Structures are given as structure tokens and as C-alpha cells.
Amino acid sequence: MRKPILRFTTLLCAILSGFSTAAEKPEFDDALRRMFADVPGGAVIARKDAAGKVDILAIGRRSAADAAPMTADTVFEIGSITKMFTGLLLAQAVVEGRVTLDDTLARHLPGELVLPPDVAAITLGQLATHTSGLPRLPADLSPANASDPYAGYGEASLHASLQNCRLTGPAPQPAAYSNLGIGLLGHLLTRVYGVSYEDLLREKITRPLGLTDTVVTLDGSQQARFAKPHSGSQRVANWTFDALAGAGAIRSTAADLLRFVGRLTAADSPLKAAWELARQPRADFPAYAGKVGLCILMSGRGGKLLYGHDGGTGGYRSHLEFSTATGEILAVLINNDAPEGLAVAAKIREWEQPATSKPPSGPVEQTITPGQLAEYTGVYEIDGAASFTARIDRQGRLVVRLTGQPFFPVFHMGNDRFFLKVVAAEYQFARDGDGRIESLTLHQSGQQVPARRTAKPVPTVLALTAAQLAAYAGTYELAPGILFEVKASRENLFVKLTGQPAYPVFGDREDHFVYDVVEAALTFVRGADGKVEALILHQNGRDQRAARVP
Fold first, then answer.
1. Among 6-15, 95-104, 147-156, 281-290, which is the least confidently predicted range?
2. Nearest to 516 by CA among 356, 400, 364
3. Among 355, 378, 393, which residue terminates a domain?
4. Is there a single domain that holds both residue 139 and residue 229?
5. Backbone angles phi and psi of 147, in degrees to 5
6. 280 contacts: CB under 8 Å, gap ≥ 6
7. Residue 356 has pLDDT above 50, yes or no
8. Which of 548, 491, 484 is nearest to 520 (CA)?
9. 181 lies in which domain range?
10. Could you tell me if 306 and 418 lie in one domain?
11. Residue 485's beta-bridge partner residues?
């Protein structure tokens, strides 16, 4: 049975995560440890401050069966942080005169491939900036092993996918995250140099920078230090990559990631020219509240420009960010897909925020009529994959959700501006020349995420009680080793599929819930006694039943 692959954007997934601030580091460490208290595995969090001091916080053990504690040298899959390395490989190829950013796919793919003209015209620079218009994943990605989805997806499959690809328009298009695009970029670079992605990585980046634990294939020592992957409460398989290695194949350690950033950005770096080329902002990337260089994401926060990337594979989450102005570095490596790397990073940022920079009190709520609130309802698109949705809930409140998150109530503070109480963030709505609401901008942690109002209808969301939601909670087996874990809170239902994050689903009719991160839905099936005994996943024109596990 094919495991469904939910297509989602890791869009500021911690942006609405609220955390209490700890005054002392021991309390802060304890707060981080509590994030991992209910799941197997753990994390290594490495931080270098502006004074050059390095702090390593290691939480948990490599696996339930492995008594060895986590250390800075524990090896993890780093997922899409790999894309930063792929961008540097492209930049180095440009520095060496092997390619230009304007080289097209047609130039570097076999001549016998017959590509659609708009696909053939995509450039290497457009691949690296996610502006190619290619989809997030290949349309024909149908893994033989559902727990290792990229394994066996080789050159022939990739080339066939490109031949059959149909774009919505010619490149460049607005930036939209594409694993296919960056994986393809890595593949093209291996063709340019005539070596594997792993060999290219070693020759051009890890050996010059002195990185000993940043690899694709583990040696015996690294295998012994490899943190085992988990998805929630389950142990899952490691991921392997073939033609799309450039999108997520690298394994590394917290110590090596600190070393990578330090040596890459040093004045005498052997990759100085490549780094300067890669770090140049080339396209707006609203979904990440910033811009993108050559696979390098960048955004402003607290008066600093931060570079970095986050990542995730089936049983790992990771995050890397750094400031060249201050020398600060933060690396988060987790061997469980339940706690998000961005969420851990957000907690760290809030702890580091000086007390003097925090307002003594929050915004003051202003009175607003129900009729006035209705003006703000609508769907506001950030990019093709993510949006904000504003609606009126059963209590008459304006509530807003970001794709992949629950609805949160917002409170009017005057002048078309609303604030949240669950976290320090505000929404500013804007009007057109006729006085109609036409856009909103989320303000949080010094970042702004703009979104334009669309004509899409506000979705129907049933008002369910905590008891009604609790009836669906449980574990449902889709296939051996592939489970839906359904959990209920007071107002929301969250569903986690093995190897993927937990997402909220929203009831639109009795026993039927829809995702907002992907075009998929769940129908819960009741037995003769009225109790839920199974669920059915509706996705890609297929209906797959998962029986409830007793």
C-alpha cells in the first residue's frame, strides 16, 4: 500500500508557537527538556554567542535501546539543510567557470530528452531560488518502500518526470519551495563534474572546510554515533536518496555544523567567493518572511540579518541559522519528527530576548461590532502553498489560522489591527481605495509576512465540543508500521501520520474532516455501537481505510 505523501510548506511553522520565558539557564534547559518528555529520542542544541562562547545542550539518548547519551558528535539526518550545501556547490561551480546561473536545463541534460519548452528553459539560478515553477515533488514519486520515500528514485525516473512535467507558466515564477527543483540542481551538478553528489560534496565543501562528520554515507564510527529516527512514539526507517540527493541526503553533527558556518564565513575561507555569491538575495520569499539566495534563506530579526535553513526527514527535524554580523550560530538537531526544529529555535529566541525589550503590558483590546468583524473574514494568500484564513467562530470572535495550524482568536486594538494572546504577534489589515479590506500582514519577532486577500470562500468549520472531538482520538493502522495518531484538544483535532508532523484537521460535516496543508480529507467510520472503529483517507482520487488499533 502506498503511503500518502502530504505536500506541505514548512512555513514559519513556529510563528504562532507561544513559550514562557525562563529567567535562568537551568530553567530554560528544563523547559526544552519538557518538549521531549513524552517522545523517544532527543536533541542536541548548539549555540555560539556574539562573544564566541559555545554552549551545547544535549537532551535524551540516541534511542530507547541505546544507553549512550547525545553529544555534539551525535550524527543526525539534517534533511533540507542539505540544500544550503547544494547552493554552495552551484556557487563554487560558477566561481570555477563550470556553469553560469543562466545555464538552462537543456544545456546540462541529455540531448535525447524531449522536454517541454518552458521546462527546458529553466535556469540553474531559478532552480536555486525556488522560482522555477517546478512542483514541490515529482508527480511520479511512488515509493516502493513507503517508509523511505526517495529511495530508488533514480536518474531515469527524474528525467521521465521532467519530460512529463507541465508548468503553470514560464519561469521565473514567485518563489515556491521545491524539493524537486533543488534535487534536480544537485543532479545537474553531478553531471557537470562527472562524480556522485557525495564525492562532489567531499571535494568542494567538506574537505576544504575540514568537516569530518558531514557525509552522505556513514563510516563505522559515524554509524556507531548515529541517532535512531523516531516519528512520535514509533521507531522509523532512515531515508536514502538517489537522484534527488541534493534536496536532503546529508547527515551531520552539531559540532560539524558550527564548524561549517565558522569556516565558511571566515575571512580566509577557501569558499569565500562561493559564499559571497550564494548569500546574495535574489528573490523575495514571502513564505519564509524574507529572501532567498542560492538555496540560502535569509530574513531580518531583531535588527540582524539571519541566514539558514531548516530540515526534516521521516524521523528527524533540524534547524540552522547564523548571523555574519555578530558571529552567532544556532544549530538544532532532533531525532524525532514531533518537536519541530523551528519551534525549538523560537523558544531559544524568546529566552534570549532581553527583558528590557519586552513591553510591560500587552495591547489593549478595543470594542468592535460583529458587523465590523465580518469585514475581515476571508482567505489571504501568502504564496501558492500557504495562506491565512480569517472567520467568525461560534463565540462571535474573529479567528485566524496559518496553513498547517489551528485557528487562534485575535483581538481588535484599533486601526484595522488585531493582536493574539497565545503569542506576541499582531495582524495589520489594509484597505484599498474604496475602503475594502484587501490584504493583511503578520508582525512577529521583527518579521513581517504579507498576504493578499483572494476570492476564495471562507471554509465551513463545525463547532465541535471537546467530548465530540475526543471520540475520534486514537491510533489507526493504515499499513504495517504506518499509523495515524489522532489526538484531541479542547477545540482542535490533530492528526499525525508516521514520518510526518501532526497537523490540525477541520470538521466540515459529521465525521468528516479536511486538511488545509494538502488536498486530503478523513472520514471517521462508526460501528453498530456508534463508536469510531476506522478512518478513511481521501487523497489523490483514492480512498484508503485504516482500522482503529485497540
1. 6-15
2. 400
3. 355
4. yes
5. -85, -5
6. 293, 294
7. no
8. 484
9. 25-355
10. no
11. 475, 496
Count of domains observed in the chain: 3
Q: Is the residue at 313 inside a domain?
A: yes
- Kindly state whether residues 447 and 477 are assigned to the same domain: no
Q: Is the pTM value of this prediction over 0.70?
A: yes
DSSP per-residue string spanning 441-465: EEEETTEEEEEEE-SPPPPP-----
247 and 154 share a domain?
A: yes
Asked whether the beta carbons of 428 and 440 are under 8 A apart, the reply is yes
Is residue 158 assigned to a domain?
yes
Phi, psi of 365 (to 5 degrees): -75, 135
Q: In angstroms, what is the C-alpha Rg of the chain? A: 23
**Grid cell for residue 237:** 526507517
Are 449 and 471 within one domain? no
For residue 187, what are the CA distances in angstroms to 94, 191, 472? 16, 7, 44
Q: What is the CATH number of the domain that holds 376?
A: 2.40.128.50
Q: For 180-227, give the DSSP string.
A: HHHHHHHHHHHHHHTS-HHHHHIIIIIHHHT-SS-BSS--HHHHHTBP
Could you tell me where the beta strands, DSSP code E, fall in 323-377? 329-334
Which residues on adjacent β-strands are paired with residue 449? 442
**Measured between alpha carbons, how far is 96 from 73 in angstroms, rounded to an integer?**
33
Closest to 112 in 3D by CA, of 162, 153, 182: 162
489 and 442 share one domain = no
- Which residue is listed with cell 484537521? 505
Q: Please give the torsion angle defined by the CA atoms of residues 233, 234, 235 and 236, in that order, rounded to the nearest 10 degrees.
A: -130
* Residue 458 lies inside a defined structural domain of this protein: no
- Distance between CA atoms of 127 and 133, rounded to whole angstroms? 9
355, 386, 411: which is the final residue of a domain? 355
Type of residue at 377: T
Q: Which residue has the cell 550564494?
A: 278
* Cell numbers linked to 342: 523551528
Q: Are residues 312 and 393 in the same domain?
A: no
* Residue 355 predicted with pLDDT over 70: no
Residue 31 belongs to a domain: yes
5, 149 contact by CB (below 8 A): yes
329 and 442 share one domain: no
**Greater model confidence, 46 or 288:** 46
Q: 189: domain CATH number?
A: 3.40.710.10
Retrieve residue 285's grid coordinates: 520569499
Question: Closest by alpha carbon to 386, among 81, 130, 177, 171?
Answer: 177
pLDDT at 339 over 70: no
What are the cell numbers at 106?
Answer: 537543456
Q: Are 38 and 219 in contact (CB under 8 A)?
A: no
User: Is the pLDDT reported for residue 8 higher than 50?
Assistant: no
Q: What distance separates the 2 farthest-apart alpha carbons in the chain? A: 73
